[in-house]
């Protein structure tokens, strides 16, 4: 038999055999691993597909594998934050977990207060709000929440839905239609407690991340509505108060007012637990933010002081401990400054924080004068203020003296307590020599409202003396007017009258003596009036009730000094308003004489003879008459034109202009009482 010679195998044959016999391929790879393990390791690292050789069972199996791979690589929901996702086709099926505008409108209808709001709807809306907050606060925008809020319009719709409808929905669910009912006593409160805490925390996060005044106003109004629920949780209340106190002290005017209303309402709901903390933090914040005083910061400081008086007046028994402690601290600072004569100790007293603290406690004692809790602190406070004036009684600290006098004057008036103030004012007239010549000239008088100490250079200006005389005159007039109905007014003002007369003799400046002479005449006129009225009295001075009744009667009738002070104060207020509005600048420039301008084409007339440096008055008058006639002709033409152009102005109709309403309705007084 003839044996057939084997054909040499080619590379194509080998490939075809290996494709048909994958088992042989695996055996050869196994042998390779034993023979040359280093090369096999190289193949594992660089050609993994060669080693992971799968046996294909047929075309059907391969088709199944292809289908499975296609299922695995299907595109998922887009996570890009674009506005296009907000305006999707409503007929298309929504992606699971993604919030759309249609879904927001459906939830909004379910939150309507006319029907019964369900717990599932509230929980869902709170989850959506949480998803919006996570999306807004996370760095990469990713979140593992159940819902996904994508796009600015959807985010705004979710926030608007919660701000407008959630407060009424919570009240509807808990049955809080009756005003003044405690939410914790409602039977459904335990069911909604956990989601409510989550929502309030997210709301505070949103409030912390907002800087726009308009958005802050809307959120603070919403927080004010939710304050009845915030008061149910002590921890959330502390977080809210911390943020609100910051806004109360540093925000814009509207923001400050809304923040204070929310603080007041939250504190009232948990007064026993939160009042101590609120009083401490608010007072320290007030002292911290009253360090620098200027015309721009005065309104904010005054608002903080008045609102603090309201907070301390909530419970005077609790407030007494803190007021006593803080007044004692002021007294310790003053004692150290008196005993240790050093600049550091003096600066601890002569600063705006110390003066504003005195102002606060004086306003509080004056506001609560009809209650007896804080009245024992009146005497130590007055002693601190008077000794503050006496600490450094130099000319540089006249502004501080005037501020302290104003504080005591208001305190005396509101508490109906006599405080001897005239000596501290008249002493200015006798201690400074107003007749000496000034070294510098200033156009405007100094304003003492925002300063406590004057520089030495300012003492040598004429504006210093003008301002001191004006301020002393105003304070003496107000102080004597407040005491003008006292039965002892002639005796009280006797020393002040003598010192004013001494000043009139020693001062040669007519502007200063004219004012003081007018004030002296009014004081003496009022003293004669009181002497005439008390000459008719039949009771003795020891009968305090009869004396008080007589003084009240005289005050009701009116005294000459009171009528003069009222008229003067009206004129003074008008002058202050003019300074604030700067009417002199608004009035415009003074009229000027206009000369006829020679046109460029027209040649100037040649002047013969020598040039006249100073022309005669007759020539100027002739030119002025010519210009005046030309101006009259122009004015006649303008009047004719204005008469023709005068037509009835049609009322502008704003029918086409959409009215922009506030997102949250304005509050009434009943909302926070």
TrEMBL record:
Region (Disordered): 1-31, 51-94, 598-657
Entry annotated with the keyword Nucleus: yes
Name this polypeptide is given: Nucleolar complex protein 2 homolog
Pfam family name, one: Noc2
Keyword terms: Nucleus
Molecular function via GO: histone binding; transcription corepressor activity
Family note: Belongs to the NOC2 family.
Ranges of compositional bias, category Basic and acidic residues: 1-10, 21-31, 598-609, 622-633
InterPro entries: Noc2
Species: Leptosia nina
Main location (coarse class): nucleus
């Amino acid at each position: 038999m003839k044996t057939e010679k084997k054909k040499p195998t080619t590379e194509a044959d080998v490939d075809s055999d290996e494709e048909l016999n994958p088992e042989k391929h695996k055996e050869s790879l196994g042998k390779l691993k034993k023979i040359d393990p280093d090369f096999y390791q190289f193949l594992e690292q660089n050609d993994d597909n060669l080693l992971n050789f799968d046996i294909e069972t047929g075309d059907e199996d391969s088709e199944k594998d292809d289908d499975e791979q296609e299922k695995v690589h299907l595109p998922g929901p887009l996570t890009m934050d674009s506005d296009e996702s907000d305006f999707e086709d409503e007929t298309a099926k929504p992606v699971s977990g993604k919030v759309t505008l249609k879904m927001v409108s459906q939830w909004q209808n379910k939150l309507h207060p006319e029907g019964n709001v369900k717990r599932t709807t509230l929980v869902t809306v709170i989850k959506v709000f949480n998803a919006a907050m996570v999306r807004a606060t996370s760095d990469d925008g990713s979140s593992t929440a159940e819902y996904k809020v994508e796009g600015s319009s959807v985010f705004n719709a979710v926030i608007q839905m919660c701000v407008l409808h959630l407060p009424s929905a919570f009240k509807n669910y808990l049955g809080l239609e009756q005003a003044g009912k405690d939410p914790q006593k409602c039977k459904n409160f335990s069911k909604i407690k956990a989601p409510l805490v989550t929502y309030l925390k997210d709301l505070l996060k949103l409030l912390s991340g907002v800087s726009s005044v308009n958005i802050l106003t809307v959120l603070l109004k919403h927080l004010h509505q939710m304050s009845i629920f915030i008061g149910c949780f002590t921890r959330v209340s502390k977080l809210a108060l911390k943020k609100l106190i910051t806004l109360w002290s540093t925000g814009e005017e509207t923001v400050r007012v809304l923040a204070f209303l929310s603080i007041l309402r939250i504190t009232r709901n948990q007064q026993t637990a939160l009042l101590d903390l609120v009083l401490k933090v608010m007072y320290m914040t007030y002292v911290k933010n009253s360090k620098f005083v200027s015309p721009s910061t005065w309104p904010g400081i005054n608002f903080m002081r008045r609102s603090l008086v309201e907070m301390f007046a909530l419970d005077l028994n609790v407030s007494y401990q803190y007021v006593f402690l803080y007044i004692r601290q002021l007294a310790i600072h003053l004692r150290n400054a008196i005993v240790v004569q050093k600049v550091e100790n003096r600066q601890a007293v002569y600063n705006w924080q110390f003066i504003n603290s005195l102002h606060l406690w004086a306003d509080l004692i004056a506001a609560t004068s009809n209650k007896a809790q804080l009245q024992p602190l009146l005497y130590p406070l007055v002693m601190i203020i008077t000794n503050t004036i006496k600490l450094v009684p130099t000319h540089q600290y006249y502004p501080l003296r005037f501020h302290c006098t104003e504080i005591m004057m208001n305190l005396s008036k509101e508490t109906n307590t006599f405080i001897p103030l005239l000596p501290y004012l008249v002493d200015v007239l006798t201690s400074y020599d107003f007749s000496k010549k000034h070294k510098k000239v200033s156009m405007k008088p100094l304003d003492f409202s925002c300063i406590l100490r004057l520089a030495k250079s300012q003492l040598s200006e004429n504006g210093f003396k003008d301002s001191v005389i004006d301020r002393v005159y105003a304070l003496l007039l107000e102080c004597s007017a407040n005491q003008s109905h006292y039965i002892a007014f002639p005796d009280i003002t006797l020393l002040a009258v003598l010192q004013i007369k001494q000043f009139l003799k020693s001062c040669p400046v007519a502007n200063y003596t004219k004012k003081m002479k007018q004030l002296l005449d009014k004081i003496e006129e009022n003293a004669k009036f009181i002497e005439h009225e008390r000459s008719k009295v039949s009771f003795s001075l020891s009968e305090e009730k009869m004396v008080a009744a007589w003084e009240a009667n005289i005050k009701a009738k009116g005294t000459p000094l009171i009528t003069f002070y009222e008229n003067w104060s009206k004129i003074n207020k008008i002058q202050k308003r003019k300074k604030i509005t700067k009417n002199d600048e608004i009035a415009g420039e003074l009229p000027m004489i206009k000369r006829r301008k020679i046109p460029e084409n027209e040649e100037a007339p040649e002047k013969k003879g020598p040039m006249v440096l100073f022309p005669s008055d007759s020539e100027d008058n002739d030119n002025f008459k010519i210009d005046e006639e030309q101006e009259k002709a122009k004015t006649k033409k303008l009047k004719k034109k204005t008469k023709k152009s005068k037509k009835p102005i049609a009322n502008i109709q704003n029918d086409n202009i959409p009215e922009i309403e506030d997102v949250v309705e304005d509050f009434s007084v009943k909302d926070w009482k």
